[in-house]
Specification:
Order of helices and strands: HHHH
Distance between the termini: 71 Å
Shape: elongated
Helix content: over 70%
Mean pLDDT: 87
Radius of gyration: 20 Å
Low-confidence stretches: none
Largest sheet: none
């Protein structure tokens, strides 16, 4: 009984985080903020849902499989988000007008100086 309630709470919490991520995909103003929010919320949502499934089945093999899935998600999701965001910067996807780009401008100046020095 307690196991079923705990499992349902984890699955419900994970579903809520996934719902928040999907609402963020619609509401946030630019690609970069959407990418960041969706990656973080989806990873946490998947973690909670898989923990709920593991609690429900209460089997060692299931927990090993869940651990392997979570390991790959925690390794791949931030890497994929970074690669997609970097590709967006390279292809000059526009930022939201209220985004502060001071650090990015400094990086671009350094890149231009290096390219000018090599030419």
């Amino acid at each position: 009984m307690i196991q079923d309630i705990l499992s349902a709470v984890f699955i419900l919490a994970g579903s809520i985080f996934m719902l928040i991520a999907s609402i963020g995909m619609i509401r946030f103003p630019d690609f970069y903020i959407r990418n960041s929010a969706s990656t973080k919320a989806v990873v946490l949502g998947v973690l909670l849902i898989l923990l709920g499934v593991g609690i429900h089945y209460n089997d060692t093999i299931v927990f090993i499989e869940i651990f392997a899935i979570l390991l790959f998600i925690f390794l791949i999701a931030p890497l994929a988000a970074h690669i997609v965001s970097r590709a967006a910067v390279i292809t000059q996807v526009k930022f939201w007008e209220k985004t502060k780009l001071d650090e990015l401008r400094e990086y671009e100046k350094e890149q231009e100086e290096e390219a000018g020095g090599k030419a």
